[in-house]
């Protein structure tokens, strides 16, 4: 029988911001037992990739693991893959950052394992043609991508083996296609089924090499896999079976295979990722239709025939689908640009790539803030996990803190920038001092979309809008999968973490930001407002405001004034109404002082119910360490997941006793307060779950305005430590 070269790659990763207990559990259940079994099978050879996030944790907590990896390298049993150190999606980074992230990983591998990697693992296998040049500039020779990418060029199943060469502007790169059957079968099918597949493709296509490469967490962390892979000896049996069949199965590393065999041909791949990612990136309704198309084609036996022409969206669609992900991404670009402008980048004429130890601290924080997991959402929690988003902001804010301390030399300062921050061809207003960042979007309700308390590296407005997801129809009609036997692929498991999730699905018609201006209609109460199904009778919430004035006085204080001439729908007619809001900032205070002027510009008296909405988070909704505070009223249920109604409040806020700071809303005129949690229903590897994203606080007043009359409302949003 003709021999087959089985190229076996494993990618291990835990994101920045994940809980230490998850790292520990993953190490014990997955990363350590995998290596122990590999050590017992010296003829089995593997290409391994560990993200820098995971390597740093292992180095600090289980450094002896490095010795085991190094020994496997020395006996030529494994090769180590490079990659972006903090597991970024390279295609969405500035080019300097992308190259530096790869070179930092390469240097780290050299220093710790005495090995110079030749290939790179791409986070989520997200590819675009420009990466050829970036990867080549980082001195890498090959990467590994899903066969999906190759099908989109018009290639067929017979072409999904060996490796190809691609080129961009004269830079070349070898690319191995990952076999989808193997990706779905390992470790879920029995060894003989995998070997039968090897025999089949040898007979059909006469191939030399076939590639498997996928997440290492499938070997012990995915639901049910630890028992199957280790307790029931799947991995031990698989490696033993390989060794017993080495008369026809060989296991070279990727770099060895390139040296031994020429490329299968030339290929130019489109922007793509693995098949599931392309589907997840689609808008919800498009995702549902796409799934229907795939099922229809499969039922008609045509899916494989036309797979080259059946593709979802692009990863970049996530930046459209989720405003929260886009704002994180633009924060990352903004901080990267700020570092570059200050001339603090790695010097171009260096003779040696610096290690993580010698990396400038602001770059280290920036690169940590580029970890991909919080920027998107698919099968895993990702963007919906508030602690992952918090970690991104935490590191980006710290990078900015370091730079600003250098610029301003710890003096009091206050700056205001008007620029297209979120890259939508419309300007935002960015106001900062040493204690806060306050970012306003005039074209979306004059709203505040980011409010950082810089000493604690905390974006208080890091919340989520409740939106439709393609999988929500499954939640509403769910039948939990409780089959026994060997585990299924994570893509096939359907579970819920609590009952009644379908009834908890709510969609917002506007983005959950702060300083949003509401005019509530008759019949509004806390319950329908909470469900975003109340009558809104004004046109201010998500509509554009004009910047009327930005000024700075002699003391350095900044005033920002925005105004909208809109309407109030009352008595069957639209009554002209204007809202002008002025925000004041000082050099010293971590506060926004504001005044709202509501003016009746119509010809009849109006009764209005005006509210100002704030959406804020302290991350934990059910912890006694984070709770509501009100000086005037005793709050019986204080946790942030509680629902409440307070009248005649002069102040109201949220306290974080873990981080020792609190957010206080202070009102010159007493306000009525509604407060409630914003919770989303999303999917993760463990099943569908409800997640606390933040709290909504609505301060509201009943006001009467005669023709031409104005009403002034003053309040302050501040942060203080205790």
The structure class reads alpha+beta
Number of helices: 19
Oligomer: single chain
What would the CATH topology of the largest domain be? 7-stranded beta/alpha barrel
- Average predicted local confidence, pLDDT: 94
Strand content: 25-35%
Indicate the low-confidence ranges by residue numbers. 346-351
Total separate domains: 3
Main sheet specs:
11 strands, antiparallel
Approximate shape:
elongated
CA(first)-CA(last) distance: 75 Å
Helix content: 25-40%
Q: What is the correct CATH architecture of the largest domain?
A: Alpha-Beta Barrel
Count every beta strand, where a strand is a DSSP E run of 2 or more residues: 26
Q: Specify Rg, calculated over alpha carbons.
A: 28 Å
Tell me the name of the CATH class of the largest domain: Alpha Beta
Give a structural overview:
With 722 residues, the protein is an alpha+beta fold. It has three domains: 4-272, 7-stranded beta/alpha barrel (Alpha-Beta Barrel), CATH 3.20.110; 274-313, no CATH class; 472-721, Beta-galactosidase, Chain A, domain 5, CATH 2.70.98.10. Helix content is 28%, strand content 29%. It is built from 19 helices and 26 strands. Strands 16, 17, 18, 19, 20, 21, 22, 23, 24, 25 and 26 form an eleven-stranded antiparallel beta sheet that branches. A hairpin with an 8-residue loop joins strand 11 and strand 12. Helix 15 runs parallel beside helix 17 (386-408) and helix 16 (361-368) runs antiparallel to helix 17 (386-408). The radius of gyration is 28 Å and the shape is elongated. The N and C termini lie far apart (75 Å).
